[in-house]
Amino acid sequence: MTSGINKVQDVLENYKWAVYEKDAEKFLSTYADDVHIYDCWGNWEFKGISLWRDNVIEWFNGLSDDGYLLKVDFNDLTIEENNNLAFVHCAVTFDGYKEKTGEKRRQMTNRFTFGLKKVNGSWLISHEHSSLPIDMHTGKGMYT
């Protein structure tokens, strides 16, 4: 897949708006075909865009079924890049709003790391890792 995105920051903006719009194709347009993802929800990992696509479609359909819009914010953002590779780490906050009323109902912050590569002049996410710190007493993820 090529997305025509020339700046790493634009990949994050695309992520943010695609989630809000629940637009799976827009969201997936910034992922490499051979993407490798470690996720903190559901499956341990996804190898390849087709498995990731199935997960994203399920996620967005679930949001629609539940009547939610998600606003995404990237906090404590660090971007390091050279001509062909980029590394991003940040805290990503997902704020869930009821679509009909605009009432904020949920909030969750995950830690994210993205590895990006340039393909045909466009930045694509080739690796993504999301995580939560674990409470050592309960073994459960800690949400902020």
TrEMBL record:
Query: In terms of domain of life, where is this protein from?
Result: Bacteria
- A Pfam family annotated for this chain is SnoaL_3
Q: Which Gene3D superfamilies match?
A: 3.10.450.50
The transmembrane segments are none
Q: Which residue range or ranges hold the SnoaL-like domain? A: 8-134
Designated name of the protein: YybH family protein
Which species does the entry assign this protein to? Paenisporosarcina macmurdoensis
Q: What is the lineage of its organism?
A: Bacteria, Bacillati, Bacillota, Bacilli, Bacillales
